[in-house]
């Protein structure tokens, strides 16, 4: 994975964009499944839509899902203005992902504004600034495993508070926590800002095939096979972290679950249906949850779809 950024972007007088450095990003990634992307030029179409087949329904819906996730993160206090980053692989590809231009507040992000970024850092479609840490963290994680289609990184307050504790582990205190515990990896070796893809590769190695990463002294990162799955996981994680902190704040002794109780909950979630919809009509809870949230957005902030 090639670092296409200068050593210190603060030394620049103009905003740095990947489009200005495509000739520095041609080396393929060392990770399997992440070949370098042949040089392409960004091709914005009329009306703000881009020529990466955005009008094809799966890709259009992916754009809308990612835009919705950003809007919802503002609602749920997961965001930090223009900072942090959510990305989503472009459906039908294994070498590019969607990312909003850096500088947009998450409450104003629209589907048509999302840029398409190659794993090699090239801007393939759209216009805007690529945040350095977004590329350096997300490209290696997308490339590391096919299950990491959506990669959401935040400094959300309750989970972020846990990463500041001497032991940042989510405790087995209740049912919600038990649903998550087997999916969590921990990075206890904070090493500064993500200024090079080597940091993303390090994080991807720690994460492996799990879907939640606690990043000590930093924040959290979750992945999913879709924006719906990743957002539901992020939502559930922040709720669990909040409950844990509330329990700690009481000063009383904690009552945790036994390993056998945790194992039973995990077996139930993996091997028993959540509801009674038959066959092809069955949707997992995370999909129903995200669809419900999108319906709320459709009523209150329908421009996210544009």
UniProtKB/TrEMBL annotation:
GO terms for cellular component: cytoskeleton. SUPFAM superfamilies: AraD/HMP-PK domain-like. This is Ribulose-5-phosphate 4-epimerase/fuculose-1-phosphate aldolase. One of its GO terms (molecular function) is actin filament binding. Residues 23-32 have a biased composition (Polar residues). Residues 1-55 are annotated as: Disordered. Pfam families: Aldolase_II. GO terms for biological process: monosaccharide metabolic process. InterPro entries: Aldolase-II_Adducin_sf (IPR051017), Aldolase_II/adducin_N (IPR001303), Aldolase_II/adducin_N_sf (IPR036409). It comes from the Bacteria. Belongs to the aldolase class II family. PANTHER family: ADDUCIN, PROTEIN HU-LI TAI SHAO. Residues 64-245 form the Class II aldolase/adducin N-terminal domain.
């Amino acid at each position: 994975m090639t670092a296409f950024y200068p050593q210190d972007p603060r030394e620049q007088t103009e905003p740095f964009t990947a489009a200005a450095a495509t000739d520095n990003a041609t080396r393929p990634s060392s990770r399997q499944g992440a070949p370098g992307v042949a040089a392409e030029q960004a091709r914005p179409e009329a009306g703000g839509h881009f020529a990466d087949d955005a009008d094809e329904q799966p890709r259009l819906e992916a754009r809308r899902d990612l835009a919705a996730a950003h809007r919802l993160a503002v609602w749920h206090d997961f965001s930090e203005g223009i900072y942090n980053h959510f990305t989503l692989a472009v459906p039908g590809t294994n070498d590019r992902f969607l990312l909003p231009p850096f500088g947009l507040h998450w409450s104003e992000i629209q589907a048509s504004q999302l840029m398409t970024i190659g794993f090699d850092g090239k801007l393939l479609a759209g216009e805007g600034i690529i945040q350095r840490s977004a590329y350096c963290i997300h490209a290696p994680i997308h490339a590391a495993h096919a299950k990491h289609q959506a990669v959401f990184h935040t400094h959300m307050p309750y989970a972020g508070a846990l990463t500041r504790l001497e032991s940042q582990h989510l405790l087995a205190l209740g049912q919600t926590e038990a649903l998550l515990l087997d999916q969590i990896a921990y990075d206890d070796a904070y090493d500064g800002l993500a200024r090079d893809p080597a940091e993303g590769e390090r994080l991807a190695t720690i994460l492996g095939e799990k879907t939640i990463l606690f990043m000590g002294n930093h924040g959290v990162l979750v992945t999913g096979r879709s924006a719906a799955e990743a957002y539901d996981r992020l939502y559930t994680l922040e709720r669990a972290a909040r409950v844990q902190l509330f329990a700690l704040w009481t000063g009383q002794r904690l009552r945790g679950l036994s390993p056998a109780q945790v194992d039973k909950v995990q077996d139930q979630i993996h091997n028993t249906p959540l509801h009674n919809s038959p066959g092809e009509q069955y949707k997992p809870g995370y999909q129903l949850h995200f669809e419900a949230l999108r319906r709320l957005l459709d009523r209150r902030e329908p421009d996210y779809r544009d």
